[in-house]
């Protein structure tokens, strides 16, 4: 029976599950590795072995479980799917509702550092007029929202679920923010609920780095944007193996990810460390944060289910939807590859900011700058949109 009930949620992982995880980590069957190749053949084994040892002997899930449980969490069922979400109301009565959407391989834990500044700016040196009521769902198939129970959970369907979630919470006018896959889902929410979404702010904009295959999009760009888009395409050819696998054959990789926590960690590190943390100029991500996301996937058995998002959304890759008309802000952090001329094809951009700091996971790598960008954008468009 379909229900619209919203149920409080509390994370309480059995100790036996944690013991079993540690046992599997202890019994990792390591492959051989070529000497002196570093990260050029994939995740460096020395780096991974060190992180696995820390996961087994130093990382404390209970500490992070308790931290997450300090945040009000809930579940509800939408379109036949469990949706888990954080919901933090601001002490400011006139706060603007804001829905935050993570990407892969993340969870809402990525937002813990920015929840306080967003919901209670008065307590964090900000203007109380810039306060938000924050809703941060786990994407269907990810973590405590997973696994998905049917095919078809693509970007548009998730956006419709988010519109339903905000309506259930009583929010009729609200903003949307997201990075990575969230940078696709948040604008899609503006397309399915334009009368409700006052504005969209995104980082790590995923649909504006490369042109579609026809070449017409390239022809319409400035010389500088065309050169950047071509360079991005060449870069992507050398870095898209993980995405190609998940967009074509996610079930195949799911067997390995669900059976080996070390394998799952290595798979997630492909994106979390930008391939070679010794060479990148992006800000490093705290290893406890990486492990909290990976442990959540492991304990919920959703590494394979999360991978399915790439398959479900694959049919829209390479195409750009028409702009929704909802005002949109783009924050380009260090390492982000969005091209303004391509972004304009799919978004109604009113603000574009380049940051020489941070990285792909801005809430983890440049939280202060991200919060400032969100505040300034929504302040500029006003609460009514």
Helicity level: 40-55%
Order of strands across the biggest sheet? 1-2-3-5-4-6-7-8-9
Coarse morphology: globular
Q: How many beta-strand segments?
A: 9
DSSP helical segment count: 16
Could you give the order of the helices and strands?
EHHHEEEHEHEHEHHHHHHHEHEHH
What is the averaged pLDDT score?
A: 95
Query: What share of residues are in beta strands?
Result: 15-25%
Description:
By secondary structure, the chain is of the alpha/beta class. The chain has 16 helices and 9 strands. Strand 2 and strand 3 (81-88) form a beta hairpin. Helix 1 packs antiparallel against helix 2, helix 4 (112-119) packs parallel to helix 16 (367-381) and helix 9 (241-248) crosses helix 13. The mean pLDDT is 95.
Compile the SSE list and pairings.
Layout: E1 6-8, H1 15-26, H2 45-57, H3 61-69, E2 73-78, E3 81-88, E4 96-101, H4 112-119, E5 132-137, H5 155-168, E6 174-180, H6 182-192, E7 197-205, H7 216-219, H8 223-237, H9 241-248, H10 250-259, H11 261-272, H12 287-300, H13 303-312, E8 327-332, H14 340-343, E9 348-354, H15 362-365, H16 367-381
Parallel strand pairs: 4-5, 4-6, 6-7, 7-8, 8-9
Antiparallel strand pairs: 1-2, 2-3, 3-5
Helix pairs in contact: 1-2, 4-16, 5-6, 9-13, 10-11, 10-13, 11-12
Question: In a nutshell, what does this entry contain?
Answer:
By secondary structure, the protein is α/β, with parallel strands linked by helices. Helix content is 42%, strand content 15%.
Structure characteristics:
385 residues; alpha/beta; 42% helix; 15% strand
